[in-house]
Amino acid sequence: MPVSTLPSAKEFEAKDHAEVEFVGFRYTGDQSTKTDHDIRTRVGYNGPPKFQRGQVYFALLPTYLDTDHVENSNIGVHALESRNDFEVIYDPARLAEALLERNYLPPEVFYEGFDRWKRQKVLEKLDLDDVGRVFDKDDEEPYRDQLRAIAGIERDDEASVSQQRADEYTSRFSRSDAADVIRALRTPVASDPPFDPGEYTIDELEAELETDEDEKWDAESLRALRAAERTGDDRTGALDAIEDMLGDDSEDIDLESAGLTEMTEYLTRYDPDVVERAVDEALGDEA
Asked: Does pTM surpass 0.70?
């Protein structure tokens, strides 16, 4: 889930015409999913207008706009505060806990190629030490350790986060719905393979996949390669080479025999926002 904001927010703050703060907010109403376009027009939130009950969304929102310099100065976080079906989260400890619960560090804040302004706002709000850019999941741990300290969460407590997500998916999806979502996740729509595995012999493919320890292939690229091989030559040796590189990420699921619990546990391997995109694609308005 990205940290959403309006492009004008940064500009107005640079001119001292606005104060912008990193906050979280969540829908607390009666519906399981709330579609609300007013959040975009009145709050300054630039993300999708679809909100799951209880799920925390992150944003950089105006807490003050100078009426002398900003024409639409009535937008901002106060529009959320005036609603009785949304809660705004300012507390750094709760924000840190929400990031850990989502099991997701926003790439535009933490990963290589980060947005400097967003990164500064989030690190300042949470009082995080800058320990460098994140390139893959292994690099997240120094930030996760800091978030745990801020939230007062022990490592063992965090192990229950995946189970909480699995329980939420179990209550939300039928078995057939969960299977459709997994099929959508398996389809490499957003990621093309880095090369055509069919153009390589198995020995050449193994040599191409070999990397130094600090230059590993990312799991998404390897899954895209696996999908390309399956739809192409479908060679057992080539698939084995790709599976070996995937390692722990290689485990698949048989949708014909798997139960709902197994499927929802499988969904927790993916970042929450990736799952939500697959839900929209597979289930649409039924989600």
From this structure: no
